[in-house]
Amino acid sequence: MTAGLRKLNTMGIFMLCLLMPVAAHSIELRSAGQTVHLSGSIKAGDQFKFRDFVADKRFRIVDLHSGGGDIETAGEIGRQIRSKKMATLVDAPRSLCGSACTVIFASGTTRHYINATGIRDGVGEKNGRGLGFHEGNNWLSNGKKGQSGAATAAMAGWYHEFGFAPAAALNTKADWKHFYYVSSATAASLGLTSNTRP
Fold it and tell me: Is residue 3 assigned to a domain?
């Protein structure tokens, strides 16, 4: 093989590697009895992973632990939860349900926010626990991540579809780099939860 062909062949392999999709970490799903445990970052395509996991099984509860991710995917997972008449659960001391995860939480036919007596209303870092709301964000034209009115509106749209409309006001209480955490009392007063006790 001549040096020119070898160089061309090497370039072709390099370009092919650039075009190949890179596997992204997505939600993790596991079951325990009639409960589905959903954790991790919500990525595009995870709605199909969720669909396949729950197909032909009778689950009653989706236990959530996720800092968020893709809003539209979260909404599509939510529609599946609603169509299967499943409840959603956030166990505050051990779980975070923030950003797009709150869309999934909203979809439960009943919504359980338990053990949240230690959670106070207010802005905090993203590594907290409980229900966390914030402005939507997206990749901007400058190549950096930033606040997105369209993403915030998309979350509000899903909340409205799932009968969770008061949550939209919580999205503007924290910028996209933080979460606004809600106490069990606030969640109950806004009608966001069906049960705030274990």
Answer: no
